[in-house]
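Budget justification, computational time. The allocation requested in the original proposal was used primarily to generate structure tokens for proteins on the priority list. As evidence of use, we reproduce two of the resulting records. The first is shown immediately below.
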Amino acid sequence: AAVPHPMIDLSPEKLADYNYLLGQFYIVDSNTEADAVQINAEDFLKQDLKITKETDTPQILIYHTHSQEAFADSVPGDVNTGIVGVGECLTKILTEQYGYRVLHNTGQYDVETRDNAYSRALPAVEQILAENPSIQVIIDLHRDEVAEETKLVTDIQGRPTARFMFFNGLSRTRKTGDIDYLANENQEANLAFSFQMQLKACLLYTSPS
């Protein structure tokens, strides 16, 4: 059975509290370091991250580093019933309901092994961006792996709905600090973009406290 969606306080006072923000919006890996400078709701909300639609070329790229990720009812060997099919569905929604131009790359970078899939995907993504400089947002769409008994379906407005999360790489560990070879010039914008989307989802689909 679906579990009720949570109640959450979205007042400016609460969003200004780093510990509250961390507890309500984020799961930080035990090896990763985050701080109140990096995770700051006020700074995130100041950024204008609207996607420009005034182009006749793609604005959004969807791809899958792990194209072979599947679900309990996926058909073996048919990627369209796995995460690639979810990407196709998302492409259709963003295109038909919201009017964006979306490029869905169905390249497979993890067929023989998942090892180094990110390295194998990188040249393809770089080529797509070089050929389509109008792309403003890149979505690497995954299916997270959980224990078989874990159920992540929740109830949203009377409908059973799958939960999702935005994954942000912070390029920083507790032991070594910033990881130079993973420096990301878009990190702050990425964090702000995912926070704004999460906040919008909360405003639309959760009960205020």
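The second record produced under the same allocation is shown here.
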Amino acid sequence: RRTSEAVMTTDATTRQPPRWVDFHCHLDLYRDHAAVITECDRECVATLAVTTTPKAWKRNRELASRSEHVRVALGLHPQLVAERASELPLFEALLPDARYVGEIGLDAGPRFYRSFPEQERIFERILRSCAEQGGKVLTVHSVRAVRKVLDHIEAALPADRGRVVLHWFTGTPAEARRAAALGCYFSINSEMLRSPKHRKLVEGLPLERLLTETDGPFVEVEGAPVRPVAVSDTVRDLAAVFATDKVLLAGKIISNLRALVSAA
């Protein structure tokens, strides 16, 4: 089934092809939401604006409706499940019109562990609904729960029915290999690359499955929230990790985005 959400691509319908990719950003949490959308278009940043509740999706989509480079994802954040589980029927009602889904997933951190069984129930429902409809691209949260997230993906969302991008992935190398075998992509932000441990993990990820993200405004640099255009610095740092040229890597990430959307 076709959705009314425009596809994030680099095809001929786009007047200015993207130069950068921010595949996970909370645009509606910036004070100057509309200005950030304008900035994404001016700087040609293909940006996925994730939402944390289904109720936020329509307004986000309205604000981005004329944007060339911003697309909006339908989300139900695992950290909000305890208070927002009742919005699952709304999520399912909106899903046919959403090409992109997120932020969804699981969080087994101490603050949210009490809701973990309910998180799993909702995550499985979302995955199965996405599989039934087909063609969705999901950005997935997996804090302290990578194995469980991958178990649910393997059980409920075959790779030919949708594609998963693991946002801010901090699993083990073995979990990364399993995720790649399931067809998952990985979105990398600047905060991840500050940790030697996580830089080493990123170095072992398949280059053809990498995207960039900011997770703004939650990630900050010098006390200020990063903006989507800051992914250019992340590409520079990733190029150093992979000992390659920044321009070549930027082109590879755009190519990865095209492959992801086409595969879904």
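A brief technical remark on that second record: The mean pLDDT is 95.
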